[in-house]
Amino acid sequence: MDVAAAKLIGAGLACFALAGAGIGIGNVFGSYLSGALRNPGAAASQYPNLLIGFALCEATGLFGFAIAMIVLYAF
Amino acid sequence: MKMSPMDQFAVKSIGPEWHLSHRYFTLAFTNQALWMALVVGVASIFMLAAASNPKLVPGRLQSMAELSYEFVTNMIRQAAGDDGLIFFPFVFTIFVFVLFSNFFGLLPGAFTVTSQIAVTFALACLVFVVVIVTGFAKHGLGFLKLFVPHVPWYIIWLLVPIEVLSFFIRPLTLSVRLFANMLAGHTMLKVFAGFVIMLGGAGGALAVLSLAPMFMIVAVSALEMLVAFLQAYVFAILTCIYLNEALHLHEQH
After folding, report:
1. Residue B90: which of B56, B125, B51, B130 has the closest Cα?
2. Nearest in space to B197 (alpha carbons), one of B24, B45, B4
3. Whose CA is closest to B240, among B124, B87, B105, B109?
4. How many domains does chain B contain in total?
5. Is domain A3-73 classified as CATH 1.10.287.3510?
6. Which of A17, B39, B151, B206 would be a feasible disulfide site paired with B202, CB 3.0-4.6 Å?
């Protein structure tokens, strides 16, 4: 198998990381929503934590994307 | 001429170059330098214009500047406590630079400064160095107690390497988070733009269908504006959280 084909396969495999990102982000927002519906008064105080949690989760998925880019373009 | 969605990230020299004797070292004024200069220039002009001739009841420009000032101050106070406010200029500069760079990248034909790993890695290393210097300046060698939380002895030998690893991976995650978000967003925009061109060039009924990727470009641009602000906010607040760890090692509130 030549390097170009292996690169494409590797980049495709690296995208499996995004499944984890999707699950994680859904988890974060779902927990925030269920907590906010039980205790609406405390929802606004946790809004910054919601944004931080979302960004940290998204970052993990995007690490997979970054690896796909490295495999495709830096080898 | 085959164009790819990744052409937008190419750093091209647009001005005077200075070649040193070593043939791999060239200083050039690149498009990245131009856009960084634009970001810094516009941010400075905005803040200076807002602070000149201040009124007790602020006008529009002044109240925008005051809003951003209060936003960052509240963020620092919440994440790092009142003695974190000494870092306000640092965090505010980082926040404004990342925010303006992200937003300027959304202009048509612009070059996104923060989509270059060199820029984001430099910012993340700066944050890391400031955190370490703060920690050692305030606590001396006791700063190393950051890696040893209060846990029973049978967990400590497993936890300390994990803590050390997660501390040293911070510059990498901080930089790659911002870089990958910007890279992914702009690549997606260019891919949809490619679809518009391909469908429009096909002619006939397919040319009308090229409106669909156009709507996607609008939707993705809106999403990118949200992501631009969110990534700037997350970079700044993670800086505050790391500074909080350096200032107050493991104290509970």
Report:
1. B130
2. B4
3. B87
4. 1
5. no
6. B206
Q: Tell me the two tokens of residue B190.
A: 């260019």
Task: Identify the CA nearest to B174 among candidates B239, B111, B220.
Answer: B239
* Structural domain includes residue B213: yes
CA distance A52 to chain B (A): 6
Report residue B217 as tokens. Answer: 């470009």
Query: Position B236: which residue type?
Result: A
Does this complex have an ipTM over 0.85? no
**Which of chain A's residues have a Cβ under 8 Å away from the Cβ of B238?**
52
Closest partner residue to A65 (CB to CB) among B184, B233, B238 is B184
Would you call B6 and A73 a contact, using CB atoms and an 8 Å cutoff?
Answer: yes
Q: Write the single-letter amino acid at A26.
A: G
CB distance from B181 to chain A under 8 Å?
Answer: yes
Q: What is the pLDDT along chain B (253 residues), one digit of tens a residue?
A: 677 788 888 888 888 877 776 667 778 888 999 999 999 999 999 999 998 888 888 888 899 999 999 999 999 999 988 989 999 999 999 999 999 999 999 998 889 999 999 999 999 999 999 999 999 999 888 888 888 888 888 888 888 999 999 999 999 999 999 999 999 999 999 999 988 888 888 877 788 888 889 999 999 999 999 999 999 999 999 999 999 999 988 776 5
Element containing residue B176 per DSSP (H, E): helix B170-202
Dig out the tokens for A63 from the structure: 């690490």
AA identity, residue B86: I
| Domain limits for position B102 | 5-247
Q: Rg of chain B's alpha carbons, rounded to an integer? A: 22
Sign of CA dihedral B207, B215, A55, B112: positive
In chain A, what residues touch B75 (CB-CB under 8 Å)? 48
